[in-house]
Amino acid sequence: xxxxxxxxxxxxxxxxxxxxxxxxxxxxxxxxxxxxxxxxxxxxxxxxxxxxxxxxxxxxxxxxxxxxxxxxxxxxxxxxxxxxxxxxxxxxxxxxxxxxxxxxxxxxxxxxxxxxxxxxxxxxxxxxxxxxxxxxxxxxxxxxxxxxxxxxxxxxxxxxxxxxxxxxxxxxxxxxxxxxxxxxxxxxxxxxxxxxxxxxxxxxxxxxxxxxxxxxxxxxxxxxxxxxxxxxxxxxxxxxxxxxxxxxxxxxxxxxxxxxxxxxxxxxxxxxxxxxxxxxxxxxxxxxxxxxxxxxxxxxxxxxxxxxxxxxxxxxxxxxxxxxxxxxxxxxxxxxxxx
Amino acid sequence: xxxxxxxxxxxxxxxxxxxxxxxxxxxxxxxxxxxxxxxxxxxxxxxxxxxxxxxxxxxxxxxxxxxxxxxxxxxxxxxxxxxxxxxxxxxxxxxxxxxxxxxxxxxxxxxxxxxxxxxxxxxxxxxxxxxxxxxxxxxxxxxxxxxxxxxxxxxxxxxxxxxxxxxxxxxxxxxxxxxxxxxxxxxxxxxxxxxxxxxxxxxxxxxxxxxxxxxxxxxxxxxxxxxxxxxxxxxxxxxxxxxxxxxxxxxxxxxxxxxxxxxxxxxxxxxxxxxxxxxxxxxxxxxxxxxxxxxxxxxxxxxxxxxxxxxxxxxxxxxxxxxxxxxxxxxxxxxxxxxxxxxxxxxxxxxxxxxxxxxxxxxxxxxxxxxxxxxxxxxxxxxxxxxxxxxxxxxxxxxxxxxxxxxxxxxxxxxxxxx
Lengths: 339, 419
Known about the structure:
The complex is a heterodimer of chains A (339) and B (419). Chain A has one helix spanning 3-36, and strands at residues 55-60, 69-74, 83-88, 91-95, 98-105, 111-118, 123-129, 133-138, 144-150, 163-169, 175-178, 183-186, 189-191, 197-203, 209-216, 219-226, 231-237, 240-244, 250-256, 265-271, 277-279, 292-295, 298-304, 312-318, 326-329, 332-338. Chain A has 339 residues and is mainly beta. In chain A, the strands form six sheets. Chain A has a six-stranded mixed beta sheet with strand order 13-12-17-16-15-14, with no helix packed on it. Chain A has a four-stranded antiparallel beta sheet with strand order 3-2-1-26, with no helix packed on it. Chain A has a four-stranded antiparallel beta sheet with strand order 4-5-6-7, with no helix packed on it. Chain B has 419 residues and is an all-alpha fold. Chain B starts with a helix and ends with a helix. The chains are: A mainly beta (339), B mainly alpha (419).
């Protein structure tokens, strides 16, 4: 090829590349505008109608003009009409007096925030997060909040995978800082692994203790945390993102069903008194979520739809042997039950 | 006025001391620099949004991705040596480099259709393997297209363009998401476009250099490459010096954490530290490369580690937070400018011509592996001694190592000048 032909080919390829990506971007913009004009396909209740009374609070994930907004349905009619707030969250946890909302702040330098909102969904407190939101939980009385985020969310990932989990009092009170700083006790011995990560907190109702996951050296431990003594003590191995049952007697968490190369996440339940663990064999596969308890015998979790990127559903499954999952709230994610 | 004008060394184009009169950086170097810029825009724009995409669209935790990414960093180091070996055996570094860039571009196509954790991990793997394959052949092409006395400047120019691409990529990605909220696929399409133009630019505009049949080399054609060429006595001190100093080069992440412990800025600014270091690097790459051409590359390589020791000290003992941060980032940028391209420049001339790509690959792998070991070991020191003491200890050891390494500088630079 002559050098002139080469320049010509290069120019043509460049122009075509620019033209095609511009055309794609324009079609995406039209799609976004179309979505902006699309109302949710689910039944709507009036805003504020469900602010009192037992309810399930979640992130709405229908591809429509309300995508990402927090919504709620009555606890006794989860498939019924939902009422929307105007608060957008990636993860949300609620109690009767407000909610913890982890949000992405878009911009040329995208940042992340942990927001505390009050009962009227007004933002009261904002704390910066070091990366993509992962989990948040409140204590039953709303006094304590835990947030987990990744310390990534940007390029230059040379530091590798890391999480940051912080526990603080809501309303701008005391903060216990990053749980990685807590003393870690594994099988009775204090350990100081360099690569430790803590994620997925669930609070006991005494506001002093909690459960969480500690990961180090490719293994994970279920730990019980003590805020006053600043300790994390191992309880079991291979259990992630625990959630304590409303009566405080059982923990539900993710487990790897087929240990080996690829993780296949399933759910299991640990009886705290007897230490007996039961895996939900007929339960879901591929759950990458911190579950919530619908009642003392039923779990809630989010699952992405395989054929619709970005759309998720909230499913429920009983903890008894052989229980099979049922769809509870469609187009929903990150559920909490407010009793 | 007249006197000062006449003092100007006009007409001294042959003088090596007159930098302004040097011929501009070669077309091959600029072409490869542009290829790297386009490819880095492509890869960094996607990796900037991948964690968001995984968590918000695919609905996975980033956990799996983080582990996968670490694994492939290691794979990349091994593949790099393989790429160097094939390039030398076939004596077609361009085709091996093209294969590497091509693999990353093809990975971008599959990314558009990948929607599960394993498929995305496979795409990331292909990208890493491509990066491992292409690095050494590309550096060998730069080295072969440049006279020895200009190597520092040539590599500096390439690294400047490369780093510029890495800085632009995330800005483009987040700019797209700002204008088109949630449209991750647009970022991927744009990334693919950059990758394709980069590959086509390389295929069409870079010459198919035959290292063994370079018209530049007088005398007999070098023999075919054999593995024993890598045991060259001139290369060994470089591997020892670069590997030894690498063992005291802890990851940037630790320095940023130390700065964070000053408590001077919010964690949300953490990513900006990477950007700051990159800006310092891209500004300094060419000037430091020129200095290396003048005073000796091995000397600059070793002195670059003094800058690194300075960064350790700044991050620990300077008490004014903003001054400490700025000085640390500037020194880190200096360190990269004085080492990354300079090591490739040195390695390219310390092995026989027919082993050039493998020589560069081996030197880069030694550095990468020793730095990984350093970060791992330092993590323990960090916990046992605390950040401050640990960094001071490493700084002290590094300065001692620099003094030892200084003994090898003269020999390395002399071997290089003779080549």
